[in-house]
Amino acid sequence: MLRPTALNETGNHEGFAFAGHAVMTEQPSRGRSKARRGGGAARRSERTQLRIETARYIERNIPNFELLTAEAVEIIEANADKVLQEIGVSFPDNPAALRLWKEAGAAIDGDRVRIPVGLARQLCGTAPSEFIQHARNPARSVHIGGRTLVLAPVYGPPFVRDAENGRRYATIGDFRNFVKLGYMSKWLHHSGGTVCEPTDLPVNKRHLDMLYSHISLSDKPFMGSVTEPSRAADSVAMAKLLFGDGFVDNNAVITSLININSPLTFDAVMMGALEVYARANQASIVSPFIVGGAMAPVTVAGTLTQVLAEVLAGIAYSQLIRPGAPVIFGAFVTSIDMNSGAPTFGTPEAAQIVYGAGQLARRMNIPFRSGGGLCGSKLPDAQAAYESANTLNAAMLGGVNFMLHACGWLEGGLASSYEKFVMDADQLAILHHLAKGVDVSENGQALDALEEVGPGGHYLGCAHTQRNFQSAFWRTDLFDYKPFETWSEEGAKDTQSLASERVKRLLDNYQKPELDQGIDESIREFISLRKEQMPDSLV
Question: Which pTM does this prediction carry?
């Protein structure tokens, strides 16, 4: 039965490797004898020592897909400038922001900010084109920007789902499980943020437990809280206890999601969190949250115009707070079903917006966030697979640098799915392989194989195949390719059943990464003190 605790099954699947196979980073096993062993027993022991792999962030060796013509780009950029100057953006309940904008040269009318043509883009010029987000395990730090792609899990759902227990409100136990799954997943580079919303904890305190879960249960990079400025400040304070004040002052160790309240509204809560992170030199994803037809025009060009205007204003504001603060150009865009009003995912319009927004971000020379394993399905079924695959492929081709929701997203973002988490994570390996491009080295050309086999032969036994068969093709850790008879004899399991088994194996084999005891104690003391300072609250 799947519960928010480790589960009882064994196996060797994603995130595991055995000695003798290539690994990129590893966490040594606990309790292993330091005594030297000899003979066959030693070799068998080495082969069976569990290691936890994390693939390095993706570096693309393939071109980005450029959908927009040069004329289309110029039109969208000119229209975005017109929106900022003539329509303006709103900064409600934030007099400090209005003062900063006025000092920078914007026209202020109530909470409306009208930005002269060129001013926002000029301010954005101080944002770095790429940056490193440091992990507490330096081997797992990530480079964000340029030709890279960093994959992070699902973010934000209040519900969770698994095949045995169905849909239910998420708990802190579920949250910890998803952090563990992310840590054990080879193809994920980032631990993420609110992988699900732990509804069993007070709203004003749960961010402390969530952040501690990322810090203690994983050594991958993580995201901070944005639901209230003081919670962002707590995130920075905890990061300083983990990394040290001086290191945090000079390096990005947190990346956080700052959503714009589209259309064209920058609410004080999100801007307050942005202000905290920018002042602390920590990274923010400035991201319009758009459902086309409801929060943006129904056309691709109209939506891209709004996206660009909002991102320009948001990133410019971060640079008003602190020039040089790291930022990411965000674009979370979906469309609406005009019959039901429900959001849709994996559509051609969404792909076009990802491609177009990627071009706009590259012209600004700022890292780009979009994509993910997005779907509107209620179950990890065929609809979920089609929609997620469409979104993942568009993100790869569109030049996304930071992909949130890369695995686990279900039901339009209302649920984090255990099974879909591992199904998606398996597919992320394909993005790694696609990004490599085509090998045209001497080995890649394989002329020796062609010469050896000749007409009418086969390649199974040739020398080239023998040298390359272990790494020749991508291999799933989940899908079933057995003959029908074998598959039937083994229970005729569908993909969701296989994924359920994988979840249990991963959680049962989870190994907690080492954390300095003194640092751990200082963070837990901070959490205890902060909880004592405020009564429980539902807001």
Answer: 0.90
